[in-house]
Amino acid sequence: MRKVYFDHVATNPLLPEVLDSMMPYFKEEFGNPLSVYDLGLRARDAIENARSEVASLINVKPSTIVFTSSGAEANNFALKGIALAKQNEGKHLIVSRVEHHSVLNTARSLEKMGFVVTWLPVDKYGLVDPDAIKKALTKETVLISVTHASSEIGTIEPIKEIVNIAKEKKVIVHSDGVATCGNIPVDIQDLGVDLYSMAAHQFYGPKGAGALYIREGLRIVPLIYGGIQESGRRAGTENVPAIVGMGKAASLAKRDLNQRIEHNKKLRDKIIEGVLKIPNVYLTGHPERRLPHHASFVVEFIEGEAMLLLLSMKGIYAASGSACSSRALKSSPVLLSMGISSALAQGSIVFSVGISNTSEDVDYLLNEFPLVINKLREMSPFAKGWGDATKGDKCYTGG
Amino acid sequence: MKFVQGIKADVTADIVYMMCPMHLLKLDDLIKQIETGQVLEILTDYDGALEDIPAWCEKTGNEFLGIEETEDYYKFYIKKTSS
């Protein structure tokens, strides 16, 4: 059976060059980067080299990059670290409603610690309105956190405009760049954010490596206390192979970015065009301002998990909402915040393409997906009177 | 402890919230980069530095000028007197 992986926002396979770069650090180059002898020094050099590669990908100085275990840790570090460092100046944070759980839940935990969070609404495309930020700002505001792009809906947020508003009031801006770093061009000098989270496995690097960009001179309270790794900002013996892999993946992403975007966009557009021919299926997220590898939909009358199951039986791997929401069988808070009804949000499905996908993979999906929808709608008590998805019959006829 | 005010530093290192022993590593690193007679300012919130930095100065032959307290952290002043 054909296998088609359309879940690149969940994770990506390692590129062979990335794995090759990591292998010595699992074997003979096993030294602790803090050790003073040559074995340790070589491990330290490898980390510093990776730091330079990651910094170069987003156009910042290497000293502003702190390696973490994941994008989630980077998000936790950014929110908690700044909230705690700035609590004497104010205890108000502004966070969008389309954030990943690692931002949403961190902000909720800060609420329990006595911070006040304003939850920013979004429009029907999932876009944050910069004017809403202007209105939400108070004298107590110390941090704004808005994702660069949501992995659920693919919408790319107007971060630059948000930064311009924040700078007037000298408020720090964090952006979760896990979905964007390595997938679209990111120039921090242009974007202007103070903190930016990244995850290696989103750009063909390994799991277990993430990073947080912290603007030079910004004070931040550590999340993990211990030794002096990462210039005393994040303790714990470094995951050297994963960090080396992240560095390699970053250098390849920088080299191949335009080519990847062009490839992915063609496939993404073909998916969107084909899937929208199926009646009562709607695109979620912004039609233009979206990630180049991301196509997300809601399918009426049926449920995302069931679609995933039947698709996987055809060898097609996709996602329904975020990986976290999907496992919890819960309506996605991101979709609900866009005004999508709870019932419709249940029919969420995300196809995200990658560099190894082909046009034939999309043909296969476009052939199988209507059959899957038909099968499920036949069983659905909500879809009575429903037409044939494979023939592009128009809409629900009531009944 | 010797408290001072308004000392003009030639080089400043802001290591507020960075973990121990970053204050000693930074000191060691920066003292090599400044000229004899110049003053180094270290900003840190680490209480242990109150003991460590004067002791380090004595051990390395540099002059500990004193500290200035702010609400959140300390400012340590060290004059390079070693060669």
Structural commentary:
The complex is a heterodimer of chains A (399) and B (83). Chain A has helices at residues 16-26, 38-58, 71-85, 101-112, 130-136, 159-168, 188-191, 229-232, 240-275, 304-313, 323-328, 333-337, 342-345, 359-379, and strands at 4-5, 65-68, 92-96, 116-120, 141-145, 172-176, 195-199, 210-214, 281-283, 294-299, 316-317, 348-352. Chain A is α/β, with parallel strands linked by helices. Chain A folds into two domains: 4-10 and 257-391, Alpha-Beta Complex (Aspartate Aminotransferase, domain 1), CATH 3.90.1150; 16-253, Type I PLP-dependent aspartate aminotransferase-like (Major domain) (Aspartate Aminotransferase, domain 2), CATH 3.40.640.10. Chain A has a seven-stranded mixed sheet with strand order 2-8-7-6-5-3-4, with helices on both faces. Chain A has a three-stranded antiparallel sheet with strand order 9-10-12. Chain A has a two-stranded parallel ribbon with strand order 1-11. Chain A is globular and about 70 Å long. Chain B has a domain at 15-34 and 46-55. Chain B is globular and about 35 Å long. The chains are: A alpha/beta (399), B alpha+beta (83). Chain A binds chain B through residues 81, 85, 88, 217, 219-222, 225-228, 231-233, 235, and chain B through 14-22, 25, 71-72.
